[in-house]
From TrEMBL:
<dbReference type="InterPro" id="IPR006655">
    <property type="entry name" value="Mopterin_OxRdtase_prok_CS"/>
</dbReference>
<dbReference type="InterPro" id="IPR006657">
    <property type="entry name" value="MoPterin_dinucl-bd_dom"/>
</dbReference>
<dbReference type="Pfam" id="PF00384">
    <property type="entry name" value="Molybdopterin"/>
</dbReference>
<dbReference type="InterPro" id="IPR036010">
    <property type="entry name" value="2Fe-2S_ferredoxin-like_sf"/>
</dbReference>
<keyword id="KW-0408">Iron</keyword>
<dbReference type="Pfam" id="PF13510">
    <property type="entry name" value="Fer2_4"/>
</dbReference>
<dbReference type="InterPro" id="IPR006478">
    <property type="entry name" value="Formate_DH_asu"/>
</dbReference>
<feature type="domain" description="2Fe-2S ferredoxin-type">
    <location>
        <begin position="12"/>
        <end position="89"/>
    </location>
</feature>
<dbReference type="InterPro" id="IPR001041">
    <property type="entry name" value="2Fe-2S_ferredoxin-type"/>
</dbReference>
<dbReference type="InterPro" id="IPR006963">
    <property type="entry name" value="Mopterin_OxRdtase_4Fe-4S_dom"/>
</dbReference>
<dbReference type="GO" id="GO:0008863">
    <property type="term" value="F:formate dehydrogenase (NAD+) activity"/>
</dbReference>
<feature type="domain" description="4Fe-4S Mo/W bis-MGD-type">
    <location>
        <begin position="234"/>
        <end position="291"/>
    </location>
</feature>
<dbReference type="Pfam" id="PF04879">
    <property type="entry name" value="Molybdop_Fe4S4"/>
</dbReference>
<dbReference type="InterPro" id="IPR054351">
    <property type="entry name" value="NADH_UbQ_OxRdtase_ferredoxin"/>
</dbReference>
<feature type="domain" description="4Fe-4S ferredoxin-type">
    <location>
        <begin position="151"/>
        <end position="181"/>
    </location>
</feature>
<dbReference type="InterPro" id="IPR041925">
    <property type="entry name" value="CT_Formate-Dh_H"/>
</dbReference>
<keyword id="KW-0411">Iron-sulfur</keyword>
Length: 984
């Protein structure tokens, strides 16, 4: 059912005179905004154009001829109104107000903002009016105190003028609703939650309040001892956040004297609109870690036979166990010479360099690159193309992803190339490509503003995509209905109109039932179905078997709730579905996504503003890396490697014969290593499969079995312990390149500083290896690589470094010089061969491993707001590690009570694949019979527990469902154990 839009009504206008300037504006426009249009600046303290105006500071008062002055930020213009913005009376009023506010301010020499960024708006006004705190005769109050409980934000209540900008930044922009007011009279001050210390409150440390504050009340603390200085004394570098797929635009302020970043802040861009989260604003110092790799390393002869090197990665529960643990090679000894430590080993959150580095020696770049080229060529010659494989990275740029896949395909003749999309949205891409002919999103996260109803499913965007979630929360405040569907009651549930807490692994049954009801009620878009879809009849027959009563038995969601969701979705004039890895990371992940595609298609919710399909991308460049061909079944831009015409096109472009067969995926490569005649040599660029892949014991065995492994990274990772050669790479901050976010926005990441020591940009390293194996590559810069990519990728047509600008461009884009690009795709046809959406029905299937008496709980894994992926970056960030330093298992109160465990106690979690020990957190967000473990913590690696069963189409592992048991530990076990505590 589609909505009929009312014809647009004419906008009523008013004409006013402001300081002698005539201005005509839409009715309701504030005097402040109208004055800006004619070049008249009115001073403000409480007002910011991004927030709802409140008029509390009265600095912007103007003379409208009335009995009292009017606050320009809230008073609308009226027809024939005459406004004066600067008269002697107004200036006296502002000067007096400034003097009153200055009376309680800290001395200028101690002002938290004037001594750092030097942009205190109140002090600027005071200077203009000739007012100084030291000379005023007004009494100073006794003080309202300070709060330094947050690791990166200082609160000085004496500098606060109660303008409420921080309150509105928290509420109106980020939607976190943490800050308010407490007290009366002089004791009134901003408060966090119920007047808690900021660091103990529900504040998520996004820093939006700091960016909003006009005085020194809220300021950033220096990180790693780098002082915060005025912007004009620092080098501003405009770039993009290196974490999640939202791709927020930011500016790094660099202290060149100290060779470090001083601070970062959000900048304007059509998507993120100056917003940041805690990772983007405070999580950049990992690049300056003293643990950065700075010299090529080669494994020493006595470190063979090869296996893991540290007690943690070996799986030892103490240092007296053998070197191989349960999964490594047991020959070769257990400690480096002279290591006399014994007894229990308590790991930290990072690889122990002292334990691992003695097994490697420093080498020159020439020696390391020559060895890599020689050994990979030898393995290729002996075992053929199938003996070589590469893992790329979604943290690297588009250009680096493109070169890496081109190296593996043209240098070694194999399509055995993959990256972490296999572990996050491979099933989504498979279903989208099959259903609509494109693996990318059909609309942006900001298009939520145009939706009547939004479904957010299998995702925790407040933690995983916090800036995108701020737009979802804003839309809800404006009237958009939000339906949140997930096994966990994450904080998104608190902002939803309907929260559906279904059983894990029952998505297909739930969405089939929603479609059953939409069809039964006649809420389908018959015209859209007839003209723009195929296979509807088969879909209708399938979902007919899923009435709400049957779905309720499967999903645990009552039938009336299913009917309510169906009605709300069916009545929507425009609806969007946003989904995450709770949909994709199942053995039925492709079927889950097929259901969402069908749900949107049968209601006509694709191809119009406020409608569409949006899998929220995980890492900063997982969209771009996939676009660039870093996947085994597609060349760049999702062009099939097994299509003859496509292959011939790339053979001509790259000047060599290419493999006509699809390559192995991440999990298939690990399996192949353990089979005769399988993969024997690997090149890993920025990936850490030891922690990111399922069933770590199996990964340990595979990495130990490889004949030759190259690891190119910025830190010594767990995977690097198995390497023959380790290459020091560049961090995101140390190179130029493009990155494509979840919206299809291609943006420039700009170099902020030089790599440390001998570390080098990844694209240069890949090119040097390519040359050594006989490829004649002569790229001089990433922009040259990008130009070559664009020629081979129709979706990126017309884009160039020159027209991306500061905000990037959405693809596809017919005119990037004048257009931001396509927001809503598929307005006329889909990208499939016949232009139709292919509806693929799915039957519900249970997960592969179900709970039983020995393993009665269902484990779900995922991310925390403060951390990222395997933690190699975020756990080296001061702020992020300080806020969230320890591994925890989240449990329902009754499940914990049944096992005799209390909040904060150590517990053992075991599955059929291994055991870990960690703290328990009692959480009302978990369903009874379910538990949740974040996968960032190597000392309690969740993926030791997970199952390596995969979706048959997307080949993605089932990270979101496996059977576990949680057991209490006695006081003697109060130490955290190693990565494994493994089950042999």
């Amino acid at each position: 059912m589609t909505s009929v839009q009312d014809p647009p009504t004419a906008v009523r206008t008013v004409t006013a005179e402001i300081d002698g300037h005539s201005v005509t504006v839409p009715e309701g426009t504030s005097i402040y905004d109208a004055a800006k249009q004619v070049g008249v600046d009115i001073p403000v303290l409480c007002h910011d154009e991004r927030y709802d105006p409140v008029g509390v500071c009265r600095m912007c008062v103007v003379d409208t001829g009335g009995r009292v002055f009017a606050a320009a930020c809230v008073r609308p213009c009226e027809d024939n109104m005459e406004v004066k913005t600067s008269t002697p009376e107004l200036e006296r009023s502002r000067a007096t107000l400034t003097e009153l506010l200055m009376a309680d301010q800290p001395p200028r020499a101690e002002d938290p903002k004037d001594t750092t960024t030097r942009d205190n708006l109140l002090l600027d006004l005071a200077d203009g009016f000739g007012v100084a705190r030291e000379t005023t005769e007004l009494p100073c109050g006794s003080g309202r105190g300070t709060d330094s409980s947050n690791p990166v934000i200082d609160v000085n209540h004496d500098a606060c003028i109660l303008c409420d900008r921080c309150v509105r930044a928290c509420d109106d922009i980020q939607g976190n609703d943490v800050i308010g007011r407490s007290g009366k009279g002089y004791s009134t001050r901003i408060a966090f939650d119920l007047n808690d210390p900021m660091g103990a409150s529900s504040c998520v440390t996004c820093g939006e309040c700091v960016q909003a504050c006009p005085t020194g009340a809220l300021t950033n603390k220096p990180i790693r001892g780098i002082p915060i200085r005025p912007r004009e004394e620092l080098d501003a570098v405009d770039s993009v956040c290196p974490y999640c797929g939202v791709g927020c635009a930011l500016t790094y302020y660099v202290d060149r004297e100290r060779g470090a970043i001083s601070f970062a802040e959000g900048r304007d861009q059509p998507g993120s609109q100056s917003r940041l989260c805690v990772k983007g604003r405070y999580g950049w110092d990992y690049s300056a870690s003293p643990q950065r790799l700075t010299t090529p390393l080669i494994r020493i002869d006595t470190a063979y036979p090869k296996g893991p090197l540290s007690a943690d990665v070996r799986g030892d529960s103490d240092n007296d166990r053998g070197r191989g643990g349960s999964g490594g090679n047991r020959s070769g000894g257990g400690r480096k010479p002279g290591d006399k430590r014994g007894g229990k080993h308590k790991p930290g959150g990072l690889v122990d360099y002292d334990e691992v580095m003695p097994y490697f020696r420093e080498a020159t770049w020439e020696e390391a690159l020559d060895l890599i080229a020689r050994r990979l060529r030898e393995i290729h010659a002996e075992g053929g193309p199938g003996a070589i494989a590469g893992f790329g990275s979604a943290k690297c740029s588009n250009e680096e992803a493109y070169l890496f896949q081109k190296l593996i395909r043209t240098g070694f003749g194999t399509n055995n190339i993959d990256h972490c999309t296999r572990l996050c949205h491979a099933s989504s891409v498979a279903a989208l490509f099959e259903g609509v002919g494109s693996g990318a999103v059909s609309t942006t996260y900001g298009d939520v503003a145009n939706a009547d109803v939004v479904i957010i499913t299998g995702s925790n965007p407040t933690a995983n995509h916090p800036v995108a979630s701020s737009f979802f929360k804003q839309a809800r405040r404006r009237g958009t209905k939000i339906i949140y569907i997930d096994p966990r009651a994450s904080t998104v549930a608190e902002h939803a109109d309907i929260f559906v807490q279904l059983k894990p692994g029952t998505d297909v049954a739930f969405y089939n039932s929603i479609m059953h009801e939409v069809i039964r009620l006649g809420m389908i878009d018959r015209e859209f179905i007839a003209s723009r879809t195929s296979n509807y009849d088969e879909l209708a027959r399938t979902v007919a078997d899923y009435p709400p009563e049957r779905a309720a038995q499967i999903t645990g969601v009552d039938a009336d709730t299913i009917r309510e969701v169906a009605r709300l979705w069916g009545e929507a004039g425009a609806g969007v579905v946003y989904w995450g890895m709770g949909i994709s990371q199942h053995t039925t992940g492709t079927d889950n996504a097929r259901c969402l595609i069908a749900l949107c298609s049968i209601t006509g919710n694709v191809g119009r503003p406020g409608t569409g399909l949006h899998p929220l991308r995980g890492q900063n460049n997982v969209q771009g890396a996939s676009d660039a061909g870093l996947i085994p079944m597609f060349y760049p831009d999702y062009q099939g490697v097994d299509i003859d015409a496509t292959r011939r096109h790339f053979e001509e472009a790259w000047g060599t014969t290419l493999d006509p067969n699809r390559g192995l995926t991440v999990t298939e490569i690990i399996k192949s290593v353990l089979q005769p005649g399988g993969v024997r040599g690997m090149y890993m660029l920025g990936e850490n499969p030891f922690l990111s892949d399922p069933n770590i014991n199996k990964v340990r065995k595979a990495l130990s079995a490889l004949d030759f492994l190259v690891v190119q990274d910025i830190f010594l990772t767990e995977t690097a312990e198995f390497a023959d050669v380790i290459l020091p790479a560049s961090s995101y901050l140390e190179k130029n390149g493009t990155y494509t976010n979840t919206d299809r926005r291609v943006q420039l990441g700009r170099k902020v500083m030089d790599p440390p020591g001998q570390a080098r940009p990844d694209w240069e390293i890949v090119q040097d290896i390519a040359r050594r194996i006989g490829l004649n590559w002569t790229y001089e810069s990433p922009s040259e690589v990008f130009d070559e990519m664009v020629e081979l990728m129709p979706s990126y047509k017309n884009l160039s470094y020159g027209n991306l600008g500061l905000s990037g461009k959405l693809y596809p884009n017919d005119d990037p010089e004048h257009s931001d690009g396509t927001i809503v795709m598929f307005d006329e046809k889909f990208n499939t061969d016949d232009g139709l959406a292919h509806l693929v029905p799915a039957q519900w299937l249970p997960p592969r491993e179900l709970p039983d008496a020995d393993y009665p709980l269902v484990l779900n894994t995922g991310r925390l707001l403060e951390h990222w992926h395997t933690g190699s970056m975020t756990r080296r960030s001061y702020a992020l590690d300080a806020i969230s330093p320890v591994a925890e298992v989240y449990m329902h109160p009754k499940d914990a009570a049944d096992r005799g465990v209390a909040h904060g106690e150590m517990v053992r979690v075991r599955s059929r694949r291994g055991t870990i020990e960690l703290l328990v957190r009692i959480s009302h967000r978990e369903q009874l019979g379910n538990c949740f473990i974040p996968f960032h913590f190597r000392e309690a690696a969740a993926n030791l527990l997970t199952i390596d069963e995969v979706d048959p189409v997307g080949k993605i592992p089932e990270f979101k469902f496996c059977a576990v048991q949680v057991e209490a530990l006695g006081a003697a076990h109060a130490e955290t154990t190693s990565i494994a505590g493994v089950r042999a």
